[in-house]
Design brief:
153 residues, alpha/beta, Rossmann fold, five-stranded parallel β-sheet, two-stranded antiparallel sheet, 7 strands
Length: 153
């Protein structure tokens, strides 16, 4: 799976090793996984077959997924069984998330993307699974570091 420019792979014989990294789920991964008609369904299903839970995410990402799917049931079930973990306290991180959104206001960066980038800053050794290559190749964590990402082929 292609990585963002500048991202490096941890040492392991088989590429990314789920046990060594924290996996961050952006909305596109979850929508692709839950919606069989989505253009990225095959890729997302493969990710969930290959990588073991949990995937870390934020409430804003779940809200985006629920809005697109028209129901919150599937993402709430994933949260309930531990496939997803809410790992960002937006109230505590609001200044940092807002600073990211303001930095990329010309894109514009949505709240879910800002939360995923902030999670990448907070979770050492993490990688973001996203379909949003155009934006995530531009975003930087800690101002200058590329955000490690895995995109669909």
């Amino acid at each position: 799976m292609p990585l963002a420019m500048g991202a490096t792979m941890p040492p392991s014989a088989g590429g990314w090793c789920g046990a060594l990294m924290k996996k961050i789920a952006d909305a596109g991964l979850l929508i692709g996984f839950l919606d069989r008609k989505d253009a990225h369904h095959e890729w997302a299903a493969h990710v969930f077959e290959r990588e073991s839970p949990p995937f870390y995410t934020a409430e804003s990402v779940l809200a985006e997924v629920a809005a697109v799917l028209g129901t919150p049931d599937d993402v709430l079930r994933m949260l309930e069984v531990g496939d997803l973990v809410l790992a960002l306290d937006l109230e505590a991180e609001v200044s940092a998330v807002r600073a990211l959104a303001l930095k990329y206001k010309d894109r514009p960066m949505d709240l879910g993307d800002a939360c995923c980038v902030r999670l990448a800053e907070l979770l050492s050794g993490s990688v973001v699974y996203t379909v949003d290559k155009a934006d995530f190749t531009i975003y930087r964590k800690h101002s200058r570091q590329p955000v490690p990402c895995i995109f669909p082929d």
